Amino acid sequence: MTMKSLGMIVQSVVSLLILAAGIYGYFLMGEPEVSKRPTNRGGITVVVTEVVASHQEGLKINLDGVVTPFRQIEIAAEVQGRISFKAENCRKGLEVNKGDVLIEIDPRDYELDVRRLEEELEQADAMIRELEVEIQTAENQKELTSQQLAIDSRQLDRNQRLSTTAAASQSELDVAKRAELITRNALQEITDKQNLLRQRLVRMESGKDLVRANLEKSNLALERTKIISPIDGVVVDESAEKDGYVQAGKPVVVIQDNSQLDVACKLHMRQMHWLWQSQEQRPGKSVDSAATGKESDERKRTASEGADSAVSGQLPEASVGGSPATANDVLQDGGVRIEGSPSGPDVSGQTRGYKFPRAEATITFQLGGTAYEWTGVLDRYDGAGMDSKTRMVPCRIHIDDPYKVTYRSLSDPTAKTALGAEQPPTLMTGMFVGVQVDANPPVPLIRVPQKAIHPGDAVWIVKDGELHRHVLKIATSAVDDVIAYQEPMGLQAGDKIVVSPLAIPVDGMKVKEASQL
User: Fold this and answer.
1) Measured in whole angstroms, how far is the alpha carbon of residue 483 from the centre of its chain?
2) Where does the pLDDT of residue 292 fall: very low under 50, low under 70, confident under 90, or very high at 90 and above?
């Protein structure tokens, strides 16, 4: 027997052994158990259902935002000159305190100007005192001349009486008249001189006031040679160096106030509608429910109809990344109206559209598996109009204390811990952050599982053993479910909704719930 024939025999034997081992193992392990579905008798489809729940927790508006400065002060030089001093902390990114001297301009020229004006002020005081002495001298001379005039007048009277009895000659009468006239003329000259001195005194006092005003201006200019930080903050720009020359009015440093910050974000008009409705429902704005119950019910019905109208077309989801708001979403009495309806009333001198509905907001920044959170208030518009490109409303969220931050682990969202003011991170301008705004509009809402939603926002419900199709008007979406409006003729809380896959569903098709088998 050749080696080739021997090899073939060995291969055949090994193959038979492997085949025998496989057959033995199959019989040894037995047949696998296969789960059996309930028998679909009579061609009725078996479906899995869940009960639609009412949503009472309001709406969470999730946005994206950018941190912006609450205020940023551009400090300019108010006087010109050479920079003789620049503080070490007057550099980009460094903190400064209120009252710190950042830059000092050479003050020598302004000190000399102050000294010159002080000397002029003293000179003006001396000239005024000199005029006052001259006025007093003229007053004394006037008194003496008045006495002399009285004597000459009496002498003239005596001569006139004597001339009537021929006791005095005409020449003696003329001499008396001449003496009286000379004295009267001297008195008039002294009076005119005195009046002139008084006018000069007024002019000198006015000149003194002018010198005093110039001195105050020079002292102010001297004070302005020191550029002082008006706030606590961080230097974000500086454009002057020591020994450089600056002109008056040239910006030299920009300081950002970090004690407060803002977050710029944008909301769809539908989201603004939720906030307006939430504002109307806040405590303190309603009257006695017993007296206005009917009116309140009518308001809720109108608000619900307004919400239905607001979502009647293809509307954006509750996020900035959604589609733009429709052109028909315009204001009416703090809500949404169809184009062409009248505008709403005024409130406290402002139109309702510009009276911003304040709402609490949570600002979140994620870093390294940790979410850092700050509390803020959505309190004003960012401007006076809508963004023409996105058709959204620019808004501002104010953060009163950026250093008050809490953090939570993304693996354990329920555990929150406060961070100290000295511990990072802190909010910085330019950060992209997440924002969640709480709204509680007075409209009925329902919660529907995501797995029950079919294309076109359609859902199937089971009623009396039959399938019925409804189209939802979704308010906002989450990971596991969606929040939709509850309409009178639509899906209601308590309805049984199909969550299992449906091959070819037909309205009115007979089905049976799996829980009833």
Assistant:
1) 30
2) very low
pLDDT digits (tens, 9 = 90+) for 3-57: 667 777 777 877 888 888 888 777 776 655 555 555 444 568 888 888 888 888 8
User: What is the C-alpha separation between 407 and 402, in angstroms, rounded?
Assistant: 13
The set of residues, in sequence order, having a beta carbon less than 8 Å from that of 95 and lying 6+ positions away, is: 89, 232, 233, 234, 235
Six token digits for residue 152: 């000459």
Least confident residue range of 22-31, 100-109, 317-326: 317-326
Give the separation between CA 273 and CA 269, rounded to whole angstroms.
Answer: 6
Separation of alpha carbons 218 and 216, rounded Å:
5
Beta-strand relationship, 511-513 and 45-47: parallel
Q: Looking up tokens 């006495």, which residue turns up?
A: 147
| Local structure of residue 315 (DSSP, 8 states) | -
* Pairing between β-strand 458-463 and β-strand 445-449 as defined by DSSP bridges: unpaired
The Cα 263–Cα 385 span in angstroms is: 18
- Closest to 392 in 3D by CA, of 334, 313, 341, 318: 318
DSSP label at residue 32: P
The pTM assigned to this predicted structure is: 0.60
